[in-house]
Design a protein that fits this description.
Strand order of the largest sheet: 3-2-1-4-6-5-7
Order of helices and strands: EHHEHEHEHEHEHHEH
Number of strands: 7
Largest sheet: 7 strands, mixed
Radius of gyration: 17 Å
CATH topology: Spore Coat Polysaccharide Biosynthesis Protein SpsA, Chain A
Structural class: alpha/beta
Distance between the termini: 40 Å
Number of helices: 9
CATH superfamily: Spore Coat Polysaccharide Biosynthesis Protein SpsA, Chain A
Strand content: 15-25%
CATH architecture: Alpha-Beta Complex
Helix content: 40-55%
Number of domains: 1
Length: 253
């Protein structure tokens, strides 16, 4: 049966030359060519300084018909995802980490629940971080503990898996209400920034607005990346959680 769910797939990227050389975009291209419900693939280049742009323009744009390349000033993952949301042309949107830690074919699982009427469908690793170093697992558990103490997200277990889908309508309403990661407040940054608090604020606002959220298990494996700094990212995450809490107390959502 032909799917009624037409999806714009967003791939935020920052200095992803190594992953591109490993063929991650070939996997996406093959999936899209076999599954017509993905109508466009938007690569949002978050101000990469390596050969990311050169590889995409030379090796992929000429032969990947549904590929859209968009470059923005370096703002971190949040800025890249929001830029993709605002430029997406189709009624539903998904985003995935470009390293394919969650295989792209898992998108079928997310689409299934969009078809059932959910506004937001999020991939979940539950509490498992298969193949991740011990320090990353400790960091994740600490994040979950602090998040649960300060913010009430009900039964959502994994806010940080980089594999999510939602209706364009819901996404744009949420982005308008965001405070910490408001498009008007996001500024250029230096170095890699995974913007861990973005996913959290997105879901927090989505829950506040009453959107139907579904969390489903997806396959995930750890992929080593230079774009993650344990100390820097942990401090950023704590800061963002506190900002979300303060904005919630001040009724800014």
């Amino acid at each position: 049966m032909k799917s009624k769910i037409n999806i714009s797939l967003i791939l935020p990227c920052y200095n992803e030359e190594i992953n591109l050389q490993k063929g991650v975009l070939d996997k996406v291209k093959n999936f899209v060519e076999e599954n017509n419900f993905v109508k466009e693939v938007i690569i949002v280049d978050d101000g990469s300084t390596d050969n990311t742009a050169k590889i995409i323009k030379k090796e992929y744009l000429p032969r990947f018909k549904k590929l859209v390349y968009k470059k923005i000033p370096h703002q971190g993952k949040a800025g890249a995802v929001i830029a993709g949301i605002l430029s997406a042309k189709h009624p539903f949107i998904a985003f995935s980490d470009i390293d394919m830690a969650t295989p792209i074919h898992e998108l079928h699982k997310l689409r299934k629940y969009l078809e059932k009427g959910y506004d937001i469908v999020i991939g979940s690793r539950n509490t498992e971080r298969k193949g991740a170093p011990l320090i990353r697992k400790i960091m994740a558990r600490g994040f979950i503990l602090i998040r649960n103490i300060l913010l009430n997200l009900g039964n959502i277990k994994d806010t940080q898996c980089g594999f999510k889908a939602f209706s364009r309508k819901a996404a744009r309403e949420i982005v308008k209400k965001m405070q910490v990661f408001s498009p008007k407040k996001i500024r250029e940054t230096k170095g890699a920034s995974v913007s861990a608090g973005f996913d959290l604020e997105f879901l927090f606002v989505g829950k506040k607005l009453g959107f139907k959220i579904k969390e489903i298990p997806v396959k995930w494996r750890h992929v080593e990346t230079r774009n993650v700094s344990v100390i820097k990212d942990s401090l950023e995450s704590l800061r963002d959680i506190l900002k979300i809490k303060i904005n919630a107390v001040l009724n800014k959502y």
